[in-house]
Amino acid sequence: MQIQIVTVGKLKEKYFVQGISEYTKRLQAYAKIKIMEVPDEKAPEQLSESEGRQVKEKEGKRILAQIKPDHYVFALAINGQMWSSEQLAENIEKLATYGRSQLTFVIGGSLGLSDEVLSRADQKISFGKITYPHQLMRLILVEQVYRAFKINRGEPYHK
Ligand SMILES: C[S@@+](CC[C@H](N)C(=O)[O-])C[C@H]1O[C@@H](n2cnc3c(N)ncnc32)[C@H](O)[C@@H]1O
């Protein structure tokens, strides 16, 4: 299985870099994992609604350029479907069974994801009603994907 994570902006803090590389290293035993960072759109702190939409659209186009037509896309969205770790694992397993082996997870930038990206998504998933900064979301996501593989293999880790 190939897992691609598309994110907006560069990972800055060392502690995130270390955490994410630890889980991507562990994940390599189960899947090919690739993290694609697309540039964020520079914008002032205060934005009108239409300026905010334009920022998301520009970032959205960069995200979509990384997604191939045969990719099954999970968009991370606060208002998406809330799943347990077991449900995420089950869905990944089901996709593999149906031959959908190219999965892309998308994390938005500081303003979120454009409508275009959300429409491309096959599934919108939420990690709860809390808003996480996108860099922390990346760490949580790689841990949850790793956890999903451990659950599917019945290997110790998951509690
Ligand atoms: C800082 S948040 C963006 C907040 C923006 N107001 C929104 O509603 O999307 C950056 C990205 O992290 C992801 N994210 C943050 N919290 C999340 C959550 N609880 N569940 C799923 N994704 C989340 C989403 O992909 C989001 O686009």
UniProtKB/TrEMBL annotation:
Keywords: Cytoplasm, Methyltransferase, rRNA processing, S-adenosyl-L-methionine, Transferase. Pfam families: SPOUT_MTase. It is found in: Cytoplasm. Its EC number is 2.1.1.177. Transmembrane segments: none annotated. CDD domains: RlmH-like. Signal peptide: none annotated. S-adenosyl-L-methionine binds at L76, G108, F127, G128, K129, I130, T131, Y132. It comes from the Bacteria. It catalyses: pseudouridine(1915) in 23S rRNA + S-adenosyl-L-methionine = N(3)-methylpseudouridine(1915) in 23S rRNA + S-adenosyl-L-homocysteine + H(+). Gene3D superfamilies: 3.40.1280.10. SUPFAM superfamilies: alpha/beta knot. GO terms for biological process: methylation. InterPro entries: Alpha/beta_knot_MTases (IPR029028), RlmH-like (IPR003742), tRNA_m1G_MTases_N (IPR029026). It is an enzyme of class 2 (transferase). One of its GO terms (molecular function) is methyltransferase activity. Belongs to the RNA methyltransferase RlmH family. Homodimer. PANTHER family: METHYLTRANSFERASE, RIBOSOMAL RNA LARGE SUBUNIT METHYLTRANSFERASE H. Specifically methylates the pseudouridine at position 1915 (m3Psi1915) in 23S rRNA. This is Ribosomal RNA large subunit methyltransferase H. The gene is rlmH.
